[in-house]
Amino acid sequence: MKMNYKKIFTIGLALLLLTVILVPALILAQRKGNGSGNGARGFCNRVSKISSDTGQKFGNQNAKLEQKRERIRERIEERRQERDQKYEQKREKWDANRAEHFAKLDERAGTDEQKRIALEFQQAVVAAIRIRRDAVNDAIQQFRQGIEDAKIARKESIDDAIIAFRASFEAFIENAKADCEEGVIDAKTIQETLRNKLKTAKQEYITARQEVEGIDMEALITAKREAIEKAQDDFKQALEQAKNDFKADFPEDEDDEEEDEEPED
Q1: Closest Cα partner for 239 from 74, 88, 126?
Q2: What's the confidence (pLDDT) of residue 184?
């Protein structure tokens, strides 16, 4: 079963987007009337509490995001372990079948020369299998490391966008508080200015988020697939050569060596 990494990453991004959209919405939702009179003056009375409440909301959302990221990491690791265990069991089965095949081959080897040829054939097959498995394991490891690197880069980009938005938000709130305390600018203008600044900051975050979503994982998937296909093709060629060398000096073997397929993660 393949993991939908793009879907997983989008979940985290959606949670963060929800955070930065709701923060300015808290301010707008508390505004009563059309922004004049008691509604606007009430905004100046509330601005300090707004700063405290939204700061706490940022902290809560960040904690939820980290919890969600951890659950995602755990699910990915569990599925990887399940796949690794599944393929290890398959490999053990292939090895057992191969050992049985080799045992029958040894029984057919009547002379020392035939025993030598049978041994060389077995060694060639085992070597080819080892090379293929090492190549497949390396391809899977490179793929997984690429995923981890992309996730780290994605996380850093998301966190940077959130930090930038929060810094802007806090600065805008402080400016609004200062303007309210000075009393030079009317409350309606302060509220409208804050709303417009937050709208701009939110749009800047959305733009940054869209750029983060543009990270392409297809190259990693293609590289892994091509590496595994090459490992399988190289193995088949090595196995065919071993068979040809073997059949040239040994009675025809009716049971072909099992050409098992390796996992793709």
Answers
A1: 126
A2: 83
* Nearest-10 Cα torsion for 191, 193, 194, 195: 80
Instruction: With H, G, I as helix, E, B as strand and everything else as coil, classify residue 31.
Output: coil
- 3-class DSSP string for 100-113: HHHHHHHHHCCCHH
Q: How far is CA 6 from CA 61, 73, 156, 179, in A?
A: 21, 14, 16, 44
User: Looking at residue 262, what is its pLDDT?
Assistant: 53
- In order of 21, 60, 98, 110, 156, the CA distances from 114 in angstroms are 77, 74, 19, 6, 63
Q: Is 262 left (phi over 0), alpha (psi -120 to 50) or beta?
A: beta
CA angle 148, 11, 81 (to 5 degrees): 45
Q: Cα separation of 260 and 232, whole Å?
A: 9
Using CA atoms, how far apart are residues 197 and 244, in angstroms rounded to an integer? Answer: 76
Q: What is the mean pLDDT of each run of 10 residues along the chain (265 residues)?
A: 48 52 51 47 74 73 83 90 92 92 89 90 94 95 90 85 86 88 86 88 83 75 94 94 85 49 49
Residue 79: CB atoms within 10 A of its CB come to 14
Structure token pair of residue 110 = 């009547």
The per-residue pLDDT for 164 is: 87
pLDDT for 79 equals: 92
Tokens for 250, please give them. 């040994």
Q: Which two tokens stand for residue 27?
A: 């301010």
Judge contact between 128 and 238, C-beta under 8 A: yes
